[in-house]
Design brief:
Blueprint (H helix, E strand, L loop, with lengths): L9 H17 L11 E15 L26 E15 L4 E11 L4 H15 L11
Antiparallel strand pairs: 1-2, 2-3
């Protein structure tokens, strides 16, 4: 793997690398430590997004209401903060120093490592579904 923006959690980063390696191996690619023709680079980042619920008690439509309510994660002011993670995998031609393929995934992560591993697995499977690209996809 080349240098990108590693995951904030080193264990998560190791899991991403192992997942990318597994996806490439499943497609018939072989990992080599030197003299590689293709560099694989991943970047991972997490941002915080704020969602608002106008129907919360403090929101503009939050007056009297009747009915069933399901816990939504919003506080009384109608604000919810979630962590959204993005994963980018790039592949570059080492000799020509050009990028040849890119895939991205964006999803909400929890604070449960086992659940997040499943989310990463699903994202990687989707990212590599049409890999390697055909001439029409390039």
């Amino acid at each position: 793997m080349g240098k990108g923006r590693p995951a904030a959690d080193p264990l998560g980063g190791q899991y991403i690398i192992a997942g990318v390696d597994a996806q490439l191996a499943a497609k018939g690619w072989q990992k080599v430590e030197s003299d590689s023709g293709v560099a694989v680079i991943y970047s991972a980042g997490t941002t915080t997004e704020t969602l608002t619920n106008p129907f919360a008690p403090g929101g503009p439509y939050g007056g009297y209401s009747w009915g069933w309510r399901v816990g939504s994660g919003f506080d009384k002011s109608g604000v919810q903060t979630i962590s959204v993670s993005e994963l980018i995998v790039d592949m570059a031609d080492v000799k020509n120093k050009t990028f040849i393929w890119r895939a991205t995934a964006k999803d909400t992560l929890s604070h449960d490592f086992e659940k997040d591993k499943k989310t990463v697995d699903k994202a990687l499977a989707k990212m590599f579904k049409n890999f390697p690209p055909t001439a029409r996809q390039k």
